[in-house]
Specification:
The protein has four domains: about 200 residues, Alpha-lytic protease prodomain-like (Up-down Bundle), CATH 1.20.1510.10; about 70 residues, 2-Layer Sandwich (Alpha-Beta Plaits); about 70 residues, Alpha-Beta Plaits (2-Layer Sandwich); about 80 residues, Cation efflux protein, cytoplasmic domain (Alpha-Beta Plaits, 2-Layer Sandwich), CATH 3.30.70.1350. The chain is built from twelve helices and ten strands. Helix content is about 60%, strand content about 20%.
Amino acid sequence: MTRKQRVALISLVASLSLAGAKLAVGLMIGSLALITDAFHSGTDFLATFVTLMAVRIADRPPDETHPYGHGKFEALAALAEAALLLVFAGIVSAEAVGRLREGAPAPDVNAIAFAVLGVEIVVNIWRAHDLSKVARETGSAALAADALHFGSDVLSSLAVLAGFLATLAGFQGADSVATLAVAVLIAVLALKLLKTTIDQLTDAVPRGLIKSLTRSVDDVPGVVAVDFIRIRKVGHTHFVDVGLGVPRSFAQEELATLKSRVTKTIADELGEAEVVVSTQPVAVSEESVREQVLLAAVRVGIPVHHITIQHLGDRLSISLDIEVEAEMPLGASHDAATQVEEAIRAELGGDVEVETHLEPMMVDLLPGEDVDAQTTEAIFADLRHAAFSLQIADVHNVRVRQLGEGIFVVFHCRFPAATATADVHERLDQLERAVRERWPSILRIVSHPEPVRE
């Protein structure tokens, strides 16, 4: 049995016991106010029974027909309780007015009536506090409604108590007036409960909440625009749908990080929340020309590299290599190049000059094997010799492999940490050209520069 079910069951027993005691004393002394209060407690018993059933259903996990869970059943129970209270308040009000008109005799108030009311007030304060606490902690609409019932019992018992004191003071119609006061109190509380429940069933949210969440989400780094935020609450869980505009240059990892930050931001403000974030890529003013070229190539699904951008007065000239399969016929390769060129012009304008160079794409898995130790040592020596003349330090981790009809070389080297990257690249190009002159069979050299160790 869950905590919600346990407090509902205790309240069920309390409601039945109090209703029976007040009804017996009310009939004994002839007090309409106390009988009314007894029937009020009787409706509490019925309402608490409905609450217990609703809580049991609401605790079920989501299923095929209720993907958001069963929390709305608690709101339905609260709606039924509110309607029951309104009907009861109307019936009691009519009876009280009739008694006032007829001049019904005053009840025979005694110590037993005061004792029953005293015990009931203490028990109802205890149950209202306990139910309200659990309702806040679990987000249970049904327990909140039940807490309201027990709270109204406290106030109605105080009204009956005031009627008894007025009767003892000699006011003939005090019991009927107290009955009307109880009925009005019940009706006001029922209307308040009704509004709260209807708001829950119609997915209403507190005024200003969407604006507050929008401001918080908009402040998350990487969010270009908040298109919409929709919230529905089922039980104590908020289900939130968020639509965002994000930079179209974002990689998948960046999008995943952004979604996590947005989810945390919303959960920090709402508490328990299941958040679904959908993104729409948008162009941002900070995009560089290179980023726009890469995005254009991504749209047509063709890899590009070695992008060169020139400003020719008021227009751009762009050249780049596009990668195509080595066995692709020239006609198909040219069509691929045309696709890239058209995508770039669509992105940057029709007057952009675009030149593409076809580059055969190497297969992902090439057969390779280490060359003999003598060849590796000879290439290593030539690398160190050329590096010394170019002030490149510590050539190491040299690997030489056979790659088809040629040789593939990888090595690491070091430069001072403050050396400009462009200078590093230029000197490594010179080193590679020098080694290739001595070893024409080398197909490719991959160099990895590192900062000099302190």
